[in-house]
Structure formats: structure tokens, C-alpha cells
Amino acid sequence: MKQKHIGIIAVFISAIMWALEPLFAKFSYVDATFLQTSIVRAYIVLLIAGSYILIKQDTPQLKVNKKKLSALIYIAVIGTLGADLIYFYALVNTPVLNAVLIGHLQPMFIILIAFIFIKNETLEKRNYLGIGLMILSAIFVSTKTMENVFALSFGTMGDILVLIATFFWATTALIMRKYLKDIPSGVITFYRFFFASIIFTLFLPFVNIKYITINQTIIGVVVGIGTICYYEGLKRLKAAKVSGIELAAPVFAALIGFFIFNDSITLFQIVGIICLFLGVFLITSYKNPQKKVS
């Protein structure tokens, strides 16, 4: 199997994980706080990443130079401690739908930053069209009806915080592509949550974690698998393509709701699913077979 195809499959798996994460987070918050769940999640992801490193026999790769270590610390601080915490804090002050839709602007940030600073991350025209269709797909599937689209209202402080978090996530993807492509995905995941766990550990005296719930455990496993697959995709595909394919998460969430919770799927969502397939085709195909640059 070609490396590009492995990358595409890996990103789709991560999108499925991102569709499952908020579901189990909702269950977890019934008997645990966000901070408690975040701490447990970080420790479990560390175990998942460590196990993956052992299975792949990547232990020697844990030794990195100062330049790569700086990039790993940036991803941990800006991605996990920064963007994640800002995003979930913002959810208190902004509707979930607003947060989801603003979060889907990440490909646009990646395209803009890459255009200015990282020229080899630019895409073919059809790839940009595909990302546009994926963004439309996410909007259609998330809002469900045209009435919900027109009812949207943006501009609160919560919306601004989500926008900041989305920008932070975009920068971490590009940092990984620029400095860490030769580092195994398990090692990147391990360090991302290792440095974050050090900070989280400082909160332990102030957080009353009496026991670990099954939902917290599942969240850790889901995030661990999702993050590893995400970086496996980033090693093989350009950042904008990865973030575009990740927009399949709302579709997977809708399908999970349909098959497991008997939720209905609207015509608006069906149009969104069609946009998804068209978008994926345009993102993963090439106009010129002679220039196959992932």
C-alpha cells in the first residue's frame, strides 16, 4: 500500500476518534470535572503512546536533539495545554455548535500560514476546492437544517477564544510537518502528553480524583489512538490535507447517532455527506500524475 493511502486511512481513523471523544466526554462530565478528566486522559494517552513505541520498537527515537525537543515542547504547551484548555473553557461561554463550526476553520489557518511561511506546504487548486467542500460538509452536517444556519450568531468572547484555539492547533500541525516528520508518531504523541502531564500533575493536590471512571479511560484510549493516527497522517500528507480530511468527523458523529442512538439524518446532512465524498476525492487526487507530492 502506498504511503499516501496509509496516511489517508490514518486520518480517517483519527476523524472517527474525534467523533467519539465528545460523546464519552459528555458521559464523563456527569461524575467528574473537566480538569479531572483532562488529567486522567493525559496519563492514559501516555500509556497508549508508550505501548505503541514499544510495539514499533521506536524506543531509541525517544532521544531527540534540542531543535526537535523545542518543537515537541511547543506542541505540548500550545496544542495540549493551550488550545485544548482554551477550547473547553470557551465552551462554557459559547454554544457548542458555534465552537464546532469555528474549529472547522483550521484548514483555512493552515493554508494561510503555509502560504506565508512554508512554501512546500502549498497545494494544487483542486485540493483547495476539496477542502472548501469539506468545510461545507462540516457546516451542513453540524447545523442539520437551513433554519439553524440562519439562526447562528457569532462575536462573543467564547467565539474569539475558540478562534484562538483553532489558530494554535493549526500552528502545531505545521510545526510537526516542518521539524518532526522524521520522528515516529508514537514518540511525538508521548512527548506531547508527557510535558502536558508534568503541568497537570501540579494540579493533583487541588483536584480530588477518588477513582478513575470507565468513560475517562475510554476518552484516554480514544484520544491516544486518534492522536497517533493523526501524526501518522501528517507524516505522509500535507497539513492542509490532513485538517481537511479530519472534517469528516461530524459525518462520523452523525452516522454514530443514526445507527446507535436512532437519531434522524436530515436532507441538509445528506447533502453534507455528498460534499464529504466529493471533497475527499479532490483532496486525495492529483491533477498532474507526474507531480505526485503529498
Describe this structure in words.
The chain has helices at 3-28, 34-56, 66-90, 96-103, 106-117, 125-143, 146-151, 157-179, 185-202, 214-236, 239-246, 249-260, 267-284. It is globular, with a radius of gyration of 19 Å. Helix content is 75%, strand content 0%. It is mainly α. It has a domain at 3-119 and 154-237. Helix 3 (66-90) packs antiparallel against helix 8.
Keywords:
single chain, 294 residues, mainly alpha, 13 helices, 75% helix, globular, disordered C terminus
Blueprint of the fold:
Layout: H1 3-28, H2 34-56, H3 66-90, H4 96-103, H5 106-117, H6 125-143, H7 146-151, H8 157-179, H9 185-202, H10 214-236, H11 239-246, H12 249-260, H13 267-284
Which structural category do the helix and sheet elements fall into?
mainly alpha
Q: Beta-strand percentage?
A: under 5%
Q: Tell me about the biggest sheet?
A: none
Low-confidence blocks of residues = 289-293
Summarize the amount of helix as a percent range: over 70%
Quick one: overall form?
globular
Number of helices: 13
What is the overall pLDDT average?
Answer: 90
Rounded radius of gyration (Å): 19 Å
Q: Could you tell me the number of beta strands?
A: 0
The arrangement of helices and strands along the chain is HHHHHHHHHHHHH
Give the CA-CA distance, first to last residue: 15 Å
